[in-house]
Amino acid sequence: MMxxxxxxxxxxEWADSNVNCYLGCSHDCRYCYAKKMAIRFKRKTEKTWxxxxxxxxxxxxxxxxxxxxxxxxxxxxxxxxxxDHCRLVLRKLLQAKNNVLITSKPNLNCITxxxxxxxxxxxxxxxxxxxxxxxxxxxxFWEPGAPTFNERLQxxxxxxxxxxxxxxSIEPFLDKDPFELIEILYPYVTExxxxxxxxxISSIGNNKNEQKYSEYIKExxxxxxxxxxTLKSKKYIKVKINIKxxxxxxLLHYKLKKSGF
Length: 261
Ligand code: SF4
Fold this sequence. Notes:
This protein is an alpha/beta fold. It has helices spanning 33-40, 56-60, 83-95, 108-117, 136-142, 149-161, 179-185, 208-220, 223-235, 245-258; strands at 17-18, 22-23, 53-54, 70-72, 100-104, 125-130, 165-170, 192-195, 240-243.
């Protein structure tokens, strides 16, 4: 029996192309794939990743209408420090009539400003906010430079009330049962919620505390828990829940292994 499945991991599940205008990200997430790649190709080090350096080539250039949706940004975030350059790039993308998926672990001041400034481009914009847990202690460990849960929730509420299309990424989910978080978020989501698992841990040390968090992720990424989440997502009727390929592929792999392939 041949089983084939298109593997579409990460940003390819969401958009046709992406745009970034900084190298490095002050959120400094311990699971960041962009950080892992930047260190591998010697563009950054473990210590310098959190220093955001403007990519002036991408900031100054013009943007045309592209085929399909553009995701912005994908390898840094929109922070108070990067905001002005991000606004400039966003304006060029939107004026060229592109549809843009704005992804962020949102800073409330940044989102307030973007909602005001791009009010007239509302139809071309969808916000996708990454909210991986409602527990600030957990967020602080995995995403040390990123906003608190409350700030992300307020940003989501604000964009929703302002009439923008809103969606949420719970990737990677950081609590065993992500539906407790979904229950809080779903009233402010107009489009979809995505759940994915942690694939990479790019910076974790050997001390007991760090190992405790890392062991917990292994536990919640167990096949049984992934199956339970997938099953529950199908029965969930309050808002559309999408399971990301990081989970689907893991379950498919398990199924094939079990049946001897
Ligand atoms: S917010 Fe995104 S780009 Fe920034 S460190 Fe975290 S995972 Fe990486």
